[in-house]
Amino acid sequence: MRLLSHSIDMSKVETLIYHLPDGQRVAIRIKGIEELIDLDYEIGKICDTSDIDGVVHIFPHGNA
Hints:
Layout: E1 2-3, E2 8-9, E3 15-19, E4 25-29, E5 44-48, H1 50-53, E6 55-60
Parallel strand pairs: 3-6
Antiparallel strand pairs: 1-2, 3-4, 5-6
């Protein structure tokens, strides 16, 4: 499944890591719910390392 024009292949993503402004992180395992995830590119920067380790990092505005 391809997502938006940035082409993140959600079938390779196992975990989303949301980097909070205070330095903490929230990791969300998405195996089985990937069709419910809609990454909004207005939320900040996205670093897709899913080809390497199955992870997509999200850095919100102000923390990117």
